[in-house]
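=== Structure Prediction Worksheet ===
Name of assembly: unnamed complex
Input type: mixed (protein and possibly other molecules)
Chain count: two
Listed entries:
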Amino acid sequence: MKQAALSVHKLNVSVRSASGTVNVVKSVSFDLAAGEVLALVGESGCGKTKTAEAIMRLIPHDIGQAQADTIELNGVNLEALPEKRMRDIRGRKISMVFQEPLTALDPVFTIGSQLSSVYRRHRGQSKRKARASSVDMLDRVGIADSRRIMKTYPHQLSGGMRQRVMVSMAMACQPRVLIADEPTTALDVTTQAQVLSQLVGLGHESGTSILLITHDLGIVAQYCDRAMVMLHGQIVEEAGVTELFSRPQHPYTRELLAACPGAAVL
Amino acid sequence: MQYALHKILHGMLLILGVTLISFMLMVWFGPDQTYTLIGKNATVEQIEEVRSQLGYDQPFLKRYTDYLVELFTLDLGASHSSGEQVGSILKRTIPVSLALMIPGFVLGNLVGIALGLVAVQHRGQWIDRLITGFSVTGMSLSFLIIIIALQVLLSTPFGVNLFPVRGWQVTGLGSYLQFVTVPTISLILVTVGYNTRFYRAVFVEESGKDHIRTARAYGASPATILWKHILKNSMIPIITRFMFSIPLVVISGSLLIESYFGIPGVGKITFDAITNGDQPVLKAVVGLTAVSFVVIQVLTDMMYKLVDPRIA
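=== Predicted Assembly ===
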């Protein structure tokens, strides 16, 4: 087997709450192969987002704790890296697209400023060069008048446009791994399809592996190679997409499929 | 530009409303000078005469418009107690109060912002707890103790005895610094607890926003997040607090500081006017406070637009 782009081994996340600590992710292990699109499916609150944040090491200490045997990105154990080195990796080797693009972008900075800061931070580009790269990137995600969009603020764009901007930030440095956390849940159905095709297409072009977090089995069937089903912080089933849909093993997977009649046909 | 004009027009209407309400309150609940002026056993005619001298027999609308004209021409009549023109009283006292309050007010806010930033940067660690504890202590300490302790420490032979304990004989920069230092330090210490707690809460709120997580997910350093994202997004509450404290600090804050340091500022004048029932002075101070609130409101709205592109 090829070396995995991302390999997570026994990841646990606990979150502090008023009534004590709660384990929201329990001993999660998986491999994401190079160029693969892997789905992480489950209902809201089952620990999908916390899994993603833990891989990126984004969980603040005062909120909770993530701990894993290993989280290997391209053979480098992220768990053992000091925070300073980790910052060089975030956004460059592994990046993330968030669920709600309006709140995920900073409201008081222009799109151009936010996007080009990624090039300046990770590619060491000058202000002007970073602007040029940003315009190119916006063109690539299918934004028509990218020069004008550079000067706008997030609240002036539609949800679909905002999420395209988010995708362009995520793909700016052609990362090894992209984690997309419910990237289209906040969008209407037609825009969903466009944004997802763009995301998966760009990932394919630059050889990026994608961990696609979703609760929509239709999306899984259409865009993913494999899928993992998560329930109460544990992965209960993992299979290739065709196999998962034709021969679901776990009762929860069957329930999910039954709740989504359109997907069962695929 | 059109925005500015719109705001100014709006501000004018506000001034009319605010002055109307404050004038009504003064007429109905404010001091009535009649009986102070005429003494005991006055006849009905004498009472009527004094009332008409004071202008109390005029219809309300006439009195209100007269008041507005006085306010806008700054021709506010003479003080009942000293006979000095109100305009000249204000001209003498307002600069003193501003010179007295501005350094402490600005520094107090800056120190609060700085401590709030440090606390949020080290959130949950000992330094954050230290700052939070320090600000709670600061808030619980009575300003009486703070001011008296500072006077003892800085202005008497029990301490370093470097500064005058009270008074305001300012002739140049040197004497200004002499007289302003202790009040300034007092003001900073009295307000820093409240300021720090407020600003820390603002920064904590901002640091929990989604876009902060995004910035971290794209490799931004803690310094970038703090100085660029958190600070710029916190500008609205910072501006609001700062701007709307101005009238309060100049009137009531200076009343406090001025009375402790024996400084002849506008706060002291106001206090005397209230206790003496000196209506011309009171009317002027109340009216100008209302006007300054409205002016600050308009300025604040314009500043919001500069820091937040979402405000149209």
